[in-house]
Predict the structure.
Amino acid sequence: MVEAQTWTTRRMSNPKLDSTATADHEVLDIPVTPTADVRNNIYTVGSHLSPNLLTALIIASWFMSNIGVLLLNKYLLSFYGYRYPIFLTMLHMISCASYSYVAINFLEIVPRQHILSRKQFLKIFALSVIFCFSVVCGNTSLRYIPVSFNQAIGATTPFFTAIFAFLITCKKESAKVYFALLPVVFGIVLGSNSEPLFNLFGFLVCIGSTAGRALKSVVQGILLTSEAEKLHSMNLLLYMAPVAAMILLPFTLYIEGNVASVTLEKARIDSFIIFLLLGDATVAYLVNLTNFLVTKHTSALTLQVLGNAKAALAASVSVMIFRNPVTVMGMTGFAVTIMGVVLYSEAKKRSKAQLAAH
């Protein structure tokens, strides 16, 4: 699945149409891993550590940031009473834009790429709209459903990716690949029917978030096709995040009212909210950064495997922290969904190997 490429090829690589969900809803598609020589030459942070220890620390940071942003969002939106998911998403976008600018222009984590034409900008704008829809829906769902149920629904992203790839690009998969998606759908149906805190609106917006994430990966593969237009995931985040923030601004002012004044008033009463919002926005960026670093130091396949483990771990941690009730049937449905995702990934890998052999 992972092929060796030069840095120049990799940084201009295009996200796969059949990518699967491996993190939360704010994660961008990550290109394939560069060769070991390239990694040693372009990244020296932590070089005094042994490779195994450095990789372990990066993976641990990936787990903490991905689970952390879910728990912080859930706490803010459901338990703290900060019921402004659109404004919260806008803060995430501002954070991602700011940190990305520093990481690329000053820390030089990846080389800077520039937007070359108005046409390319319009394509990035279209992706930003889909990105906004997906992230806002994901954050909104956390107001109404538990993190565990949110993660179970999010695991169905491969199902929607296959549908959109077929509808938009007429891309057909083998019968084995489609068959592997059946447990994904069956598991979420089983879990939904037995979810004690099931909320129809929360379920629907979470489905919208999952479908939006899948649609973005497919559309991204279509729009940014030429070598001149392909952007590294970190550069794509740098350009998409501020556009997304500008798109969200009028919506948060119209739908959520004078949210800035409300937030300042809350801060006067309880300054802890400032720490929560800043921390949440920072962790939202770390999700994207650690996704890039995990792929860089391991592989895209490893990221997929970690994504399945993260979903299960996030569900378990959220149950322990927030004490939301779970049922045996619900846990069974979640397990079936994860099993379906694993089978789907394996079927895709074998299908690609057969095509390459012929």
About this structure: The radius of gyration is 20 Å. The chain has 15 helices and no strands.
